[in-house]
Specification:
Chain lengths: 293, 398, 287
């Protein structure tokens, strides 16, 4: 059997080594901190590098806190916010992507450019823009005041946080959605219409199933960063009422002397995402198998 | 064939897993546990353990940059600019928002300042145990004698070996006089106002676990703010959760801006903050719209200046400390920062006679009698600290 | 039926465009505000850009420092990550078997990992394991390179797939060594992806917040996003809006230069498709 030429591994080696050293090993380091011991004076984490000596006590404590203790609220709240944000993002983003893919016609390039622009605007600037608008003397609050709605938007309001997440991440949904819809075989939809389906039926029974995999991919694509988001909440609300998982991780890892708790939470977040990801992979491969039947 | 490959791979992997960690740990550092915490209290003052020598006398000051670690808006920019001109150096400031995050970042090397402003007694035991501070050479600080007598050798650091007192303050409740009447605080338990759902969404507490948990204790009539009693702490935790449910508080240290801006009506804060707030009033809002309730049972405190052990500009740092203790500079600083300098030359009367303090805020000034009768926060043992932090985590996790 | 949909959808999309862009435009507008407020218009002025001797972007040393740090971090990351990424993509593309799958997995995982996980992991690593690497610029650089490698690989791999192996095989048939085929045939064809990677990585790093924040070391390593974040929480002047606008302008300038470079290259090499194809190149990484 001809040996694969040495040049290819040689080319791939620097990058692969880099990723191993600065991505793989840090994950291992997180585990070592999470399952290590605590310094008695500073209550600081002492990492345990030998996996055979890992101590799961602290991890079990945090897990208990998540399942039935103070962290339960944070976890549930994060899941609820992310789900709400995804659903709202789809409600806004899917029609936009659909229009771009199907009906844009002459204006397509212009609209595409306008839709892409938010990508290139710094996320923080987009949030800053809303912080200004939503502050009590801001334009949006004053506008709402005209209708008699006096509400302090920046006051620990879950609506503001969810809408902030939507505003921030919906562009990341629209592009993949557009890419998926553009590549769909629209002749199948036309065929369905020819066979007598109404446009609504064709949409529900042909378009959606074809786009399903792409929709799931787009949903996962924005769900993952949302789960780790902490700055949106920090900027738009500074209240314990909207505390998210990312805030807790940021607090424990950066601002406390108990990074061990933060490490455990990071592992839990990664585990959660692994579950979501493997669900997605399994459903898309199953879907792909069905399509090729 | 396949089985042999499989077994070979298995041996290599497990061998790697066993060998690699010892290689890894050779790379990393092990955290050194530096002995017990030395905690001074008012009834049991302490001399901190030695941590090397102070710098020699008579050295010339360094050129270049002085890096300061400070709270936000805690030193008058003009005072800083004047120092820069005086010594021909540049000053860079890094900001911290809580004591805990400052300690964490000092210990893990995120912050490497030349001078630290604004830490308090509750941080000192750990700073000392982590051997983070260098002894102060008072020959560079002739203005040291300006300090209030009692603070020249404080209980937490006898002989001021590692720290130099900076400002004094007390905890209390700041409010908008145009929205809340002062009788709210004088009829019955003034602390109850913080639990009043009438202020829902317009109320704030400090992002400082010792101060805010103490608030809950004072409201319940408990005065031991250094307790390690688990029952007292869990009662305080419940009390704080009641506060959270009733008033949906903001938890930060920004009331000195948000209160004058009108975004908040009432805030549990440090007394100096309400004086700082005078500078943030928008045009058209009079100074009298700010008020401060000074509780009978409350915490009084002072913070300090200290120099990290590996400061790159220790002489400049000493000179800056001396500079801040000069009466005129301290007064100029006070007009911006609000907090009372811990100098015997600047008394409550001095501040009142300057005319900058409105009638409604006279209560926020800490007289010597008030200072002595307040409760002091001291460092906690690690176990007690863990209880406090758990209570705080339960409150902030929503 | 279809006619109704036609009227609803355009409303939605134009509504979306307005909702998406107007707040940013307002924020940019307020950077020219005459007074201290970021919310109440007090007249037009260049005060926060160049006028105010203390607090304007031009004169405030800490703001200039932030801009400088952002640019240096972005440039250095680009310079390091593009060779590594191209090399990895080309090498991995031709690998077979288990090692191919392993490398594929290794490069895909960063794309789906939230930044907070990477940031926290790197912070713990640099403070407890690789303690020789100081926090601040060195750590931020390494972190951003790590996070960007995958983006480069995705862009380059897409191009490799569309190029196919035909050209190289032809070169080998004509007597070139594998290395010569790579250097003289494949690499020139990869130019569009180099430019696209440059644009994408530069914009990503200059906008990066989480990793840069976790690995920062105080005011010395403050970049513009970090500055914006810490200032929004405390009293900020319209100079903050100005700073953010500058950041956006920088990203856009790099993007537009990249797009034009790409369309020029395509025109010269006979690809048609012009601007739209260039746009597609650049958004490859996100789709």
């Amino acid at each position: 059997m001809k040996q694969s030429p040495k040049i290819w591994p040689a080319l791939a080696a620097p990058g692969a080594t880099w990723l191993l050293a600065l991505f793989g090993i840090p994950f291992y380091a997180v585990a070592c901190v999470a399952f290590g011991t605590i310094d008695p004076i500073f209550r600081d984490a002492v990492p345990q590098w030998n996996p055979l000596a890992w101590d799961f006590g602290q991890a079990r404590e945090v897990l208990a806190s998540v399942l039935s203790g103070p962290l339960q609220g944070v976890f549930l709240r994060t899941i609820v916010y992310v789900l709400a944000a995804i659903i709202t993002s789809f409600a806004i983003g899917f029609p936009v992507a659909y229009f771009l893919a199907r009906h844009a016609g002459k204006r397509k390039l212009l609209l595409l450019t306008l839709v892409i622009v938010p990508f290139w605007v710094n996320y923080l600037m987009r949030m800053l823009a809303w912080v200004n608008l939503l502050s009590p003397s801001g334009l949006f609050s004053r506008f709402m005041g005209v209708f008699g709605i006096h509400y302090n938007w920046l006051d620990g309001s879950p609506i503001t946080v969810v809408l902030g997440l939507v505003y921030g991440y919906v562009p990341f949904l629209i592009l993949p959605m557009y890419a998926t819809l553009e590549r769909l075989d629209w002749r199948l939809v036309e065929a369905a219409r020819d066979l007598g389906a109404t446009s609504r039926q064709a949409f529900r029974l042909v378009t959606i199933p074809m786009a399903q995999a792409g929709m799931a991919a787009a949903a996962i694509l924005i769900a993952l960063p949302m789960f780790g988001d902490y700055y949106t909440n920090d900027l738009l609300s500074r209240s314990p009422r909207t505390e998210m998982l990312g805030n807790q991780i940021d607090f424990y890892v950066n601002n406390s002397q108990q990074p061990q708790r933060g490490a455990v939470l990071v592992l839990m977040l990664s585990a959660l995402l692994l579950v979501a990801l493997s669900w997605y992979l399994r459903s898309t491969s199953r879907y792909a198998k069905e399509r090729t039947k | 064939m396949l089985r042999r490959d499989f077994l070979r791979n298995l041996v290599i992997t497990t061998g790697g897993l066993v060998v690699a960690p010892s290689l890894l740990s050779a790379c990393g550092t092990s955290a050194t546990s530096s002995g017990e915490l030395v905690i001074g209290t008012p009834t049991n003052p302490t001399k901190l353990p030695a941590n090397g020598e102070a710098i020699a006398d008579g050295l010339a000051e360094e050129k270049g940059t002085l890096e300061i670690l400070n709270w936000a808006d805690y030193t008058n920019p003009e005072v800083i600019a004047d120092f820069e001109k005086l010594f021909g150096v540049t000053i860079k400031t890094s900001i911290y928002d809580t004591e805990e995050s400052a300690i964490a970042k000092l210990r893990n090397g995120t912050f490497k300042p030349d001078l630290i402003i604004g830490l308090t007694d509750t941080a000192l035991a750990r700073l000392s145990a982590a051997k983070l501070l260098q002894p102060i050479n008072k020959s560079y600080i002739p203005h040291f004698t300006n300090l209030i007598g009692g603070l020249q050798s404080p209980y937490y650091d006898l002989d001021s070996q590692y720290t130099v007192a900076h400002v004094i303050y007390a905890n209390g409740i700041a409010y908008r006089t145009d929205r809340i009447d002062s009788s709210v605080f004088t009829s019955g338990n003034g602390y109850d106002a913080m639990w009043d759902s009438a202020y829902k969404g317009k109320l704030a507490v400090l992002d400082s676990y010792r101060d805010t948990i103490s608030l809950a204790m004072f409201q319940a009539g408990k005065n031991d703010v250094n307790t390690s009693d688990a029952d007292v702490l869990s009662a305080a935790q419940e009390n704080l959760i009641r506060l959270r449910n009733a008033t949906n508080p903001k938890v930060d240290i920004l009331s000195y801006q948000e209160l004058p801006a009108g975004n908040r009506d009432i805030a549990f804060t440090w007394s100096g903050d309400i004086l700082t707030a005078l500078g943030y009033l928008p045009e058209g809002t009079p100074a009298e719209s700010l008020g401060f309730w000074y509780p009978e049972q409350t915490i009084t405190a002072n913070d300090f200046l200290c120099i990290p052990k590996d400061s790159k500009a220790p002489v400049l740092a000493h000179k800056f400390i001396d500079y801040l203790l000069d009466t005129d500079v301290a007064l100029k600083n006070q007009t911006y920062v609000g907090y009372q300098p811990a100098l015997s030359t600047i008394t409550v009367d001095t501040l009142l006679s300057s005319g900058a303090i409105p009638e409604t805020l006279k209560d926020s000034l800490v007289t010597p009698e008030k200072y002595d009768s307040g409760q002091r926060l001291v460092s906690l043992s690690p176990d007690a600290d863990a209880l406090w932090l758990d209570a705080w985590a339960a409150f902030t996790a929503g | 039926m279809t006619r109704r949909r036609f009227r609803v959808l355009p409303t939605i999309i134009w509504g979306y465009v307005i909702w998406s862009l107007v707040p940013v435009i307002i924020a940019v507008a307020y950077s020219f505000n005459d007074g201290r407020s970021r919310t109440v218009w007090q007249g037009f002025s260049l005060r926060w850009w160049i006028g105010d001797p203390n607090a304007s972007v031009l004169h405030d040393a800490s703001m200039r420092n932030a801009i400088f740090n952002s640019l240096i971090l972005a440039f250095t990351t680009v310079v390091i990550v593009i060779p590594i990424g191209i090399s990895l993509a080309v090498g991995a593309h031709r690998l077979r078997g288990r090692s191919a799958k392993a490398v594929q997995g290794l490069t895909s995982v960063p794309l789906i990992t939230p930044e907070i996980v990477v940031g926290a992991a790197l912070l713990l690593t640099f403070t407890r394991l690789f303690t020789g690497i100081p926090l601040g610029f060195p750590a931020q650089l390494l972190g951003n390179v790590t996070f960007s490698i995958s983006a480069v690989v995705v862009i380059v791999r897409a191009r490799l797939v569309s190029i196919g192996s035909g050209f190289e095989e032809a070169a080998r048939d004509l007597g070139a060594t594998r290395f010569q085929a790579l250097r003289y045939v494949l690499m020139p064809m990869l130019w569009p992806s180099v430019m696209a990677s440059l644009v994408v990585v530069f914009a990503t790093v200059i906008d990066d917040f989480v990793i840069t924040s976790f690995l920062s070391s105080g005011v010395d390593s403050e970049t513009v996003p970090l500055r914006i974040y810490s200032s929004v929480k405390g009293g900020a002047t319209p100079a903050l809006n100005a700073l953010a606008t500058l950041l956006v302008l920088t990203s856009f300038t790099v993007l537009i230069c990249g797009l034009f470079g790409l369309s020029l290259w395509r025109k010269r090499h006979g690809d048609n498709g012009g601007l739209r194809a260039a746009l597609a190149d650049v958004t490859q990484a996100d789709a």
